[in-house]
Amino acid sequence: MKFERFDEVVKFHGHSCPGLALGYRVALAAIEELGIKRAEDEEIVCIVENDSCAVDAIQVITGCTFGKGNLLYRDYGKQVYTFFDRKKEKAVRISIDFELTETDEEKAIWRRFTEGERTKEVLDFINRRKAEKTKQILNADKEKLLKISYPSFNPPKEARIFKSLRCEQCGEKVAEIKARLLNGKTLCIPCFEAILCKK
Ligand SMILES: [Zn+2]
Ligand SMILES: [Zn+2]
User: What confidence score (pLDDT) does residue 156 get?
Assistant: First the structure.
């Protein structure tokens, strides 16, 4: 019952996996900490420090989405998620700290997988382990899974609407802030880079 919304997340993401389960737990912890249901607008902002499966769960459960601009991605490769509630002026930082114990036999099979072995034995094992791991994450004590702290409230700026320009190379529109100027020509980044590469 507690994890009833996991199905919703799996449907959006396309499959069930440990990463998704981690993101789901983070999202549940965040809405609990902030005392919210879902972010309809931009009152809740989330900064994610990775682009793994977990982020899909964050989007479905918290309503912080890439498209709305209240989900910001920092490419740090860390399992850290910081949420800001603009109304309450409250911030919560959630980092995943989860270590799975593995036997030597399990480690050996994982090694075979990473070395490229795709036999039925190895694949069955991997799938079984993934399913077990997902279940373990969904049922783990919050305290054992997540480290929660309360940094000072310092939210990112609100998403702004930018004026758009037309790229003089491809003719497509581009947000002014992303446009490049080369020899007096306004260019989008792909056109700008293509011209630079040809030189
Ligand atoms: Zn996944
Ligand atoms: Zn262009």
Answer: 85
